[in-house]
Amino acid sequence: MKTRTRLAVLVVGATGSIGRLVVEQALARGHNVRALVRAGAPGARQLDPAAQRVVGDLTRVGTLADAVSGIDAVVFTHGSSGGGKAEAERVDYGAVRNVLAALNGRRDVRIALMTSIGVTNRTGAYNRCTEIHDWKRRGERLLRASGLPYTIVRPGWFDYNAADQLKLHFLQGDTRQAGDPSDGAVSRRQIAQVLVASLGCESAHGKTLELVAERGPEQSDLEQMFAALAVDVPSAANGFDAIGDMANMPIEQEPQRVRETLRDAMVPSAGLAPRTVPTLSARTPGADS
Q1: What is the percent of the chain where pLDDT is above 70?
Q2: pTM
Q3: 279 DSSP 8-state letter
Q4: DSSP secondary structure string, 210-257?
Q5: Cα 74 to chain center, whole Å?
Q6: Fewest Cβ atoms closer than 10 Å to its Cβ: which of 75, 174, 245, 281?
Q7: Separation between Cα atoms, residue 14 and residue 30, nearest integer Å
Q8: How far apart are CA 155 and CA 191, in angstroms?
Q9: pLDDT tens-digit readout, 107-138
Q10: How far is CA 240 from each of CA 18, 133, 144, 146, 225, rounded to the nearest angstrom?
Q11: How many CB atoms lie within 10 A of CB 75?
Q12: pLDDT tens, position by position, 87-102
């Protein structure tokens, strides 16, 4: 696997159940790890002491300057929990939007973003109630439009896998949408492993995958698995979605604020200049503002 020996890695969601494992895995690989924590967050005490704690609020871009200063990579493992649609926008989407804004035009930062298997399923009861899938998907779109080197990992159900179910499978197209563990399961530890491994693997960049585990031993090297994946071809025409994704969230029907943020995130060097997609800034009748 092609790997830079040492990266300065910011972990967003570091005090969560997967974020803590990402911190451990990144340290084990020799990276310098910076954990974003809220002021007074009790979970910060549980982090490996080798990780630097940096105080900030992922929902407030003005608090993130210290967190992103001098970093080489970001791993996102954050997620909203029970706060409804408003929290889904503020956290699941807002963290990606705010960190990208805090980077202030830097295009050399590697990103690993965790979202969810079934993220393109808009009609299931879970998304209708919370809109979490929609807001996570909008965060994915921002990242693809930004021109930054990225890997997006959509894990299956956390820790629903059996003890002998450790052989990782990378899928694409987000076709498993039952909304229950039959979609696939994977351990939290392996999710962290894949996120951290993607940072140092050139063949992982520009790719989106669903991550599940099947019966069998786990693999020691993920490079060939990353290399076998199809590369995303993000554009306004396909909504900046992943390759193979269902075309069921047209940009022109998105809320005005979402279209404006997506327009601002795009980079001319990636052929995504705002002037080429006027529909992003045109108000759609009935759209939220």
Answers
A1: 91
A2: 0.91
A3: G
A4: EEEEESBPPPS--HHHHHTSPPP---GGGTTPPTT----S-GGGS-HH
A5: 10
A6: 281
A7: 17
A8: 7
A9: 999 999 999 999 999 999 999 999 999 999 99
A10: 26, 15, 6, 10, 23
A11: 31
A12: 999 999 999 999 999 9
To the nearest 10°, report the CA torsion of 209, 215, 220, 226. Answer: -20
CA distances from 237 to 206, 207, 240, 256, 271 (A): 17, 18, 8, 17, 12
Do 57 and 34 form a contact (C-beta atoms < 8 A)?
no
Burial of 195 (0-12, 13-18, 19+ CB in 10 A): buried
Assigned token pair, 77 = 């493992």
CA 158 to chain CA centroid, Å, is 16
Low-confidence ranges of the chain (pLDDT < 50): 1-3, 269-289
C-beta atoms surrounding 204 within 10 Å: 28
List the structure tokens of 271. 């052929």
Chain position carrying tokens 């990992």: 153
Instruction: Using DSSP bridges, classify how beta strands 150-155 and 207-214 pair: parallel, antiparallel or unpaired.
Output: parallel
Take residue 241 and report the two structure tokens written for it: 């979605």
Rg for the chain, CA atoms, rounded? 18
